Amino acid sequence: MAVRALGNGIKKFLEQELYRTNRSPLEYVALISLGLLVTAIAKYPDRAIFTRARPDLKGKEAKGLPIVGNLFDFAKYSDNPLLMLYNGFQKYGDVFALTIPGRGRFIFINNPELIEHVLKTNFNNYIKGEIFSVQVRDILGTGIFVSDQEEWRFHRKTAVNIFTTKIYRQFSEDAFPAGADILCSVLAEKEKLGQTVDMQELFMKLTMDVFGKLIFGFEFNSLRTEGPHEFGDAFDYLLGNVDSRIQNPFWQWTDMITPGKCTKIKNALAILDKYAYMAVKKRRNETEEEKEKRPKDLLDQYINHVRDDGTTPTDLELRDVFINFMIAGRDTTALTLSWQFYSLMANPRTLKNVLKELDIVLGGVEDYKFEAMSHGLPYLKAVFHETLRLYTPVPRNVKESLADDVLPDGTIVYKDDIIGFSTWCMGKNKSVWGEDAELFVPERWLNEDEPSTLAPVPGTQGISPFGKFRMESQHKFNSFNSGPRLCIGQTFATLEAMVTSCMLLQRFEFKLVPGQPTPVPKPSAALPMRDPLMMQVKRRS
Ligand code: HEM
Asked: Which residues bind heme (predicted)?
């Protein structure tokens, strides 16, 4: 009633004014718009519209333009969003903020104490949230990576059951060597033909094949396929696209007006769906006899789950499980292996140490026992962790705040503020990792005075001379996340990378193809290299 009365009042006033001043309605619209704009500029002089003034963030907030805040900073760094964060931390310290219209205020944090608070101490207050969910819903649906609270608890409980030490033992001794052996046969073939290889492409194919088979019983066979695989290609395109959605708050509109973009996204999604539904259909049609013959996997965990109301997961829900886990299992490990092999080739002293350790510990024997891969090769394990520290495959992340909060350094967080953090930036933070933070130094992970083990572990021929591997806290070494949402596949990834590295380095010599540019990351939700990682391979004599 009151609104209608107010509307009528305004209408009457405007009619009288139009009559009295002889102005056209268009002139009035222009005047009112100008009035609103001037008011908005006065109210939001250096920040995005509808964000609150935060004098308490003085010295920590990047000054923005009236109404649009830091929108143009976001746009300026669309090709290198990590650099925007890196420069921000360099300029403002471990906390800095900026505002974006439609998104609100981002508070970026860059030290272990703050990370621990957000990811563990006050875990329930910091959720994935609606903005992230909308950005990735068409790809990830309602899977573990986008879910919060009850839905997330369901996924977590269902998934962790499958990742047991018993399973890891089998993977380390059989499945991972079998996958690496196929990769070696591709390398041997290429060597015979005198061809160079793109190791990034091959590692992506390896992890896709191994993960598809072990976790969903699905054979991609991409390593045996020459050239790119359509599932991998579609995946890479969509992950790159997620990055532009994070960077551009108006992506829904810009996607619509960019010629061909919506069709490209639709086609890529159709390819992901095709493979996910193929895997689900195959499993649903399996006979009891077939079921008996194979080990239980993640798809079984989900398919056999009966909810309290008696329902079981639909094909669409299983599609989401497939896609979420394929992202987890394919890109992360493959990209880490790519950066690790690059780092080894770029640091000959490190490579020499790895080969020395392999000779002493494995002595040319291809026996990849769980214990040997977990504790027997501290130097190689240090190389893997140093790679993850500098080239983490999940380079940045955001959380939405459900309620007002205060961070340990006194920074106030209001409900709906977005907390951003970047493991990639924290790896380069000198106050966290020391003056050599930006250098590749595997030795920082080793207690060189302590023996790695007191007696040879099963599957080894000798004890590593490089000391004992020393793990850092989850909040400092945040590449596997921390707190209740710690990566489920940490051991899986570590073992797969260790076994693959061992077999490849035992069998082949690798050399970077001369003249190629130093690898740089390509904008993506993960950390792919922008260009292929071309190497020459030669069988070890
Ligand atoms: C080097 C390899 C890997 C790295 C660096 C890595 C890193 C991460 C990170 C940073 C997260 C948190 C993501 C987020 O909350 O947005 C995460 C979550 C997760 N990872 Fe990994 N990951 C790796 C490999 C794997 C593998 C091989 C698997 C599967 C076996 C896996 C399964 C998962 C799952 C299921 C989650 C979601 C956990 C949750 O939300 O509760 N990851 N991982």
From this structure: 487
